[in-house]
Write a structure and sequence with these properties.
Blueprint (H helix, E strand, L loop, with lengths): L1 H7 L5 H13 L3 H16 L1
Helix pairs in contact: 2-3
Length: 46
């Protein structure tokens, strides 16, 4: 839930965007990696 709140504002915060870019391929939790990638994919489509 906390990560979801962070992602809502990542478009306005370069550090959060970098965090998602790092977590998508590197987080040990597969679900978090997938979720981070989905957020990045949404950003590309917007």
């Amino acid at each position: 839930a906390a990560v979801q709140e962070l992602a809502r504002g990542y478009k306005d915060d370069p550090q959060l965007f970098e965090f998602l870019c790092d977590r998508a391929p590197n987080d040990p939790d597969e679900k978090l990696r997938q979720w981070a990638q989905e957020q990045l994919d949404r950003h590309e489509k917007a």
